[in-house]
Design goal:
With 274 residues, the chain is mostly helical. It is built from 13 helices and two strands.
Amino acid sequence: MNIIGKLKVDPLSYVAGLESPIGVYIRSEIFKKEHKNDASLKKRLYEQTVANQSADGSWSQLFVLTANNLWNLRLLGCEAQDKAVSKGLEWLLSMQKYDYRGYPGFFNSPNRKDPSLMRSTFYGEFGPGCSIFYDTTYAVHLFQIFGLPNKKQLQTTVKSYLSFWNPEWCGAWCTINVLRILIEHPLSAESKQVNGGLEHLAKLQTKTGSWRGFPFFHTFHAISRTKQAMGKKQLERALPTIIKRQNKDGSWGRKEHETETFLILDALKNVAII
């Protein structure tokens, strides 16, 4: 099934004009239609990104900026061996020195600017939950997408979540952030915690396909990475809302068009219906 023919507007009409890491990624990895100038655009975006990296591997000693820039580098096709990426990931590991109620492996930025920056930045795959869980889940995800999920330090974090997490343990953003990494990490993808999280969301899903109290685009994208039938059924139920919510220019979302368009299109790619 290809959903493109059912949409009001071909999303490529919006994506074609994006001169950003998200635009590069969507054109290349989802639509397989790179612009003739995308190679030079990638180089320019890469150089702009690494030019602002601090000597310690961070971006301005801020977790949010560092995580977002590492995500951008992955969208541009960079691998873990890239010097800027490896330095950035090492800096993230320096943040992993916290316990949560006796469970080890949690990341937390000591920079006082990070919490407010997190709450005001709706960019990428993670939303503004509790600082320690936003930092932790985002960091684990970055190691995952750079092909390093089996690092011992990251396994410690996932095992800690498996020891205490349940879908009603915190607010919606924390819940979907944690569920996202449990769905995608090899240690937890088939766990009872993921099954419980999907069951919880199934109970909250409305007739229109949205999830009561949960961010629609992030939830849709997080579930798209599961192989469990319960998740796939929820995605199918949400497809009419995907069609209905598309903007006239082919994008999705109200304020963060690029991020929310990425979340929808990447999720559709994950379930092979685009």
